[in-house]
């Protein structure tokens, strides 16, 4: 049976199909719980959450499902920039504030993303699975989570990163191929080193680690699941496929942009957050790619662009929005999670039985 | 049976496994004939060949096999550069000539790669299959080849390119994912638009064309074949996997570099030829990536760097060689083609039967 992998046993799910933790809106309690109710694993993308927001989200999910689900957190070290550099990055964004009629004032700047308090909530709320992006949390955090029987999952974009995830004692590793939408999870070396396509990444990771490998990047349907399974993955993580579902909290203009885009339209950019991420190319990215623009490190740039992104969403102006998308966007559909799972399971059965 | 696809029937081969047309050395008559003898399709990478070289290569292959094989040609429009720009590109290479103790003189410059004469030879020698890279040949060429019952294959890096290949009347299309080593086949728009990972590219191409799709990029073993097959491909094209075989004519230092490299070490560069290609990062690429360097268009840059690449190969100095490699290099092995096929077929049987 294709769905009985070490990973589905570990997670306690019917299908080893994971909904990617798309931070910043898409992973509503409706989306997360519905994925879990359909037999997959829903994950709350809590990277930017406050403690209150995380608690309420978990409780909302629990109201809607009694199946396993997960929380994803970001591992981000504190960043420093000089006042001059911060000002320069802020000034680069002036024309966008002007176009959106936003006040020309410095927003609240986050130089790091706290994780300790969020971990406490994950433990207190007995969330079954906790995954991490952008790095490996301190040993002490992993030990605490495991002591509370919480499954710990890391994310890797290279073989070296996957080995580091395993060595840290995590239970499974997501191998994120270059096709994936949203942020690159790269944490060792330069992010461009991590642009390995899923077809090449998954079998090489599989050859070097013993923990279950979860394939991600470009997987949109039953064909992608079956292919990942042939490469040695014991599960898949899908983002873009869930982003356009009816339950997803992604902005409607974002959904429409993905649904109508082609595979050629995405680029890797640091313009929105300071970290490399894949999204549909637009005016904002184009303007910030030129010479003389200073992009602040993550998460400072993310704070700087936040008012612009929020206002652009309100106005439905996709020129200034972060339109995260993977390279499989021609295969995206605006269905319900139930319909998506129905098709997935039936297609995989057709291919793998 | 996994090996009975429309493609294997079309090509008349036992296994729909194609050896990629690695121009510039690797595709010796020994390699090509051995791949065909083992039941796959060997292809002579004739993009840079003279008429004489092509004739003798075809005849050498025919002496070694009575199985189908192919010839690959480049579709390249004539390029023009000003004397000043040519001089500037030439000067950028001065330090390399100096290090290799080469005379500081302008080599013979090819501004285009003739195709008509080579097509005549393909027809005269009754080569069963002719594939093309970098574009679509004139309608008249396709018509002539098909009139002589020669199967015509195109190469695409995007859905639009695949549609163009089908519309031109070609019989099959290679979908080249971003993992692939060597030159990007992109011919519509900018080559960076064509950096779609195999996992995302193959199913999307499949959804838009009716002719058989051949997956390439990151496919190194039975797992890759099986995955490609799940994505809807009717065959695979493998380059890096054949480059390191004993029969391959690749320089021994090039082979060793691939065999000992990791998936993170390749980059896309135009430094060697003027066209984007994936190879192991080295001193030459690094030096030509800086500011103020003028890289001539393909194939002019290729002519300019030729003496440097040739001398570097003689001296075994990998700092100045074009070390083409895909992203699956950790899976490369220095076996015979026979051993490679034995393992491939047995692994695919294990996965797909």
Structure notes:
The structure is a homodimer of 353-residue chains. Chain A has 353 residues and is of the alpha/beta class. Helices cover 40% and strands 13% of the residues of chain A. The first copy, chain A, has 15 helices and eleven strands. In chain A, strands 1-9-8-6-5-4-3-2 form an eight-stranded parallel β-sheet. A three-stranded antiparallel β-sheet of chain A has the order 7-11-10, with no helix packed on it. The longest helix of chain A is centred in the C-terminal third of the chain and has 16 residues, at 300-315. The relative contact order of chain A is 0.15. Chain A binds chain B through residues 158-160, 177-179, 189, 192-201, 203-204, 207, 217-221, 223-224, 226-232, 262-264, 267, 326-328, 330-331, 351, and chain B through 158-160, 177-179, 189, 192-201, 203-204, 207, 217-221, 223-224, 226-232, 262-264, 267, 326-328, 330-331, 351.
Give me the secondary-structure topology.
Two copies of one chain form a homodimer.
Chain A: H1 6-11, E1 17-19, H2 29-37, E2 42-45, H3 51-64, E3 69-74, H4 83-92, H5 94-99, H6 116-124, E4 129-133, H7 139-147, E5 151-156, H8 159-167, E6 172-176, E7 182-183, H9 198-208, E8 213-216, H10 222-230, E9 235-238, H11 240-243, H12 252-259, E10 266-269, E11 277-280, H13 283-287, H14 300-315, H15 337-352
Parallel strand pairs in A: 1-9, 2-3, 3-4, 4-5, 5-6, 6-8, 8-9
Antiparallel strand pairs in A: 7-11, 10-11
Helix pairs in contact in A: 2-3, 8-9, 10-15
């Amino acid at each position: 049976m294709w769905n009985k992998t070490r990973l589905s046993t570990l997670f306690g799910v019917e299908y080893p199909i994971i909904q990617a933790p798309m931070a910043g809106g898409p992973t509503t309690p409706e989306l997360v719980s519905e994925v879990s109710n359909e037999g997959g694993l829903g994950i709350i993308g809590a990277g930017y959450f406050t403690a209150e927001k995380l608690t309420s989200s978990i409780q909302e999910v629990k109201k809607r499902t009694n199946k396993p689900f997960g929380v994803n957190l970001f591992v981000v070290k504190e960043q420093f920039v000089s006042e001059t550099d911060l000002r320069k990055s802020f000034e680069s964004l002036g024309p966008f504030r002007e176009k959106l009629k936003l006040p020309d004032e410095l927003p609240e700047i986050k130089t790091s993303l706290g994780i300790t308090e969020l971990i406490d909530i994950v433990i207190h709320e007995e969330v079954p699975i906790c995954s991490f992006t952008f790095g490996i949390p301190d040993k002490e955090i992993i030990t605490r989570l495991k002591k509370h029987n919480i499954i710990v999952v890391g994310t890797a974009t290279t073989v070296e990163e996957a080995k580091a995830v395993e060595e840290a004692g995590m239970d499974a590793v997501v191998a994120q191929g270059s096709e994936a939408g949203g942020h690159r999870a790269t944490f060792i070396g330069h992010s461009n080193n991590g642009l390995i396509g899923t077809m090449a990444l998954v079998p090489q990771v599989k050859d070097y680690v013993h923990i279950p490998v979860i394939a991600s990047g470009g997987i949109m349907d039953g064909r992608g699941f079956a292919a990942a399974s042939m490469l040695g993955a014991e599960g898949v993580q899908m983002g873009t496929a869930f982003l356009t579902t009816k339950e997803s909290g992604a902005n409607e203009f974002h959904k429409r942009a993905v649904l109508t885009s082609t595979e050629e339209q995405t680029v890797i950019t640091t313009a929105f957050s300071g970290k490399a991420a894949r999204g549909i190319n637009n005016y904002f990215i184009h303007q910030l790619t030129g010479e003389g623009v200073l992009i602040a490190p993550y998460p400072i740039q993310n704070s700087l662009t936040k008012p612009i992104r929020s206002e652009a969403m309100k106005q439905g102006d996709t020129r200034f929005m972060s339109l995260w998308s993977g390279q499989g966007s021609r295969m995206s559909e605006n269905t319900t999670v139930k319909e998506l799972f129905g098709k997935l399971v039936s297609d995989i059965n057709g291919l793998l039985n």
